[in-house]
């Protein structure tokens, strides 16, 4: 009986994630980050996906939470500043990764307490505090994995 209950719980927990809607994603963002940060996320989502779609490397780089890591070519690279990402963009990001991020559906985002995943986890944004008091924060890229 316990095994059946555990299996049922697992099925009910996993199933909604497979068919989530935009509203489900927003509710998850709100539940983890609060209403204000969830509301702020939409602008970052739009800016990030548009920047990838338009090959706007400067905007993508401006959204980085430096330093952060990029996994590419079987290596792990530390990106220390925006100019590092811009100068090495083609070597660090596969065309498939760029296309997947540019075409990201809001309903297919991964929301966790550690951040929001794009393109099945190829890129992660996290809500990063601007100072110790965390009076303000921004959604920033914290990792890219090709």
Automatic annotation (TrEMBL):
Signal peptide location: 1-19
UniProt KW Signal keyword: yes
Keywords carried by this UniProt record: Signal
Domain of life of the organism encoding this protein: Bacteria
Name of the protein described by the UniProt record: DUF4440 domain-containing protein
Organism: Devosia yakushimensis
The organism's taxonomic lineage, starting at the top: Bacteria, Pseudomonadati, Pseudomonadota, Alphaproteobacteria, Hyphomicrobiales
């Amino acid at each position: 009986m316990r095994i059946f209950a555990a299996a049922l719980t697992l099925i009910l927990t996993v199933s909604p994630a497979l068919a989530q809607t935009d509203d489900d994603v927003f509710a998850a963002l709100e539940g983890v980050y609060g209403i204000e940060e969830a509301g702020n996320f939409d602008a970052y989502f739009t800016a990030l996906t548009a920047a990838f779609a338009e090959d706007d490397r400067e905007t993508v780089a401006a959204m980085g939470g430096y330093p952060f890591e990029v996994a590419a070519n079987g290596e792990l690279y530390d990106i220390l500043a925006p100019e590092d990402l811009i100068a090495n963009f083609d070597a660090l990001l596969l065309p498939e990764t760029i296309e997947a991020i540019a075409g990201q559906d809001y309903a297919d985002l991964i929301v966790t307490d550690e951040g929001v995943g794009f393109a099945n986890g190829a890129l992660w944004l996290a809500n990063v505090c601007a100072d110790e008091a965390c009076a303000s924060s921004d959604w920033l890229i914290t990792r890219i994995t090709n």
